[in-house]
Amino acid sequence: MDNGIQMDQPGRDRSTGDSPGQRPAVRGRPWSARGWAARAIGAIAIALLLLSAGGVALAYYGTDDNLVVGYAPVQPVEFSHKLHAGDLMLDCRFCHTTSERGPMAGFPSTRLCMNCHAQILPESVKLLPVRATFAENRPIAWVRVTKLPEFTYFDHSVHSVAGIGCSSCHGRVDLMLRTEQAVSLSMGFCLGCHRDPAPFIRDVADITNMAWLPKSPPSAVAMSLSASTPKPTPPLHCSGCHR
Q: What is the DSSP letter of 83?
């Protein structure tokens, strides 16, 4: 007879009401081994993804490749700056089209390469990767040589219009069969120029002149620049490069 008093049932836990061996429900949602396994696999996948991304970053920045003078990675196309910029005297801006108007100098598009090579050496085996990527409408996977850390703000156009020439940071690329790191792009290198930019400043008409050398003492060079070249006042405070 129901007299309003709930009697304990044999084999049940008085505190939870669950049978022995039965996992208690969590906030009204029944426990599922399959759901728990799915969440565990998802967490492991995310952890592996983060570790992989960290490994890629460490493989580049952890080895100082962006600072080591002489770093010259193998490129997908055997491109010679000595031939193009040196022997043929192509202007840097012909291929690096955003060097004076953007934060990055940019890589040449495959279409730009084919503008010439559709007529020049169109059957060359060395240019097979160029023709293949052009046919597939995708860019060439060039390996960057000059690369600053992600936490460093750099605007290529600001330096170009201020009269800092290509060879000051990239070296004599017109003599390089394979592009290589010419100077250490360390913080010390950048600050050395920011503190005393005069030795590096040239007329903007000479920024792509690889053989340029100051013909006068640095102070005289800075004073003799044309009116078209603005007098730079590079920042020395932290937020100038780390924003």
A: I
